[in-house]
Amino acid sequence: MTAATPPESGATSDGSASACARPWPLRRRSRLPSVSFALGVVSLASFWVSGLGFVLGLSAVVCGAIAASRSGAADDEPASLRALLGVVTGVAGIIVSAIALFPVLEYL
């Protein structure tokens, strides 16, 4: 009794291509659009912490702008949408943080 070994060429015993064989190499996708969106959401959630929402919003805008300017994001529609949402939520976090900071400036 011998164990059957799978063929090395990526084809199954009946000659059809296996699910493991990929005709093209996998491209590594950028995480920058997701990071931008996450930073924007956290900046909106932390607007009440003096300065933290502003800094996180600014970093979300920068990450989103870099991610949107890359050529890989132009081909990947969900990534470009996440980058745009990161910029929008980052700007919203900056605005809300600035509005929340104005009453505190009186006491600084």
Fold and architecture overview:
- The protein has 108 residues and is mainly α.
- The chain has a domain at 32-105.
- It is built from four helices and no strands.
- The chain has helices spanning 32-45, 52-69, 71-75, 77-105.
- α1 runs antiparallel to α2 and α2 (52-69) runs antiparallel to α4.
- The N and C termini lie far apart (83 Å).
In short:
The chain is mainly alpha-helical. 61% of the residues lie in helices and 0% in strands.
Rg of Cα set: 23 Å
Provide the helix percentage: 55-70%
Low-confidence stretches: none
**How would you state the average pLDDT, rounded?**
81
Discrete helix count: 4
List the helices and strands and how they pair.
Blueprint: H1 32-45, H2 52-69, H3 71-75, H4 77-105
Helix pairs in contact: 1-2, 1-4, 2-4
Features:
single chain; 108 residues; mainly alpha; 0% strand
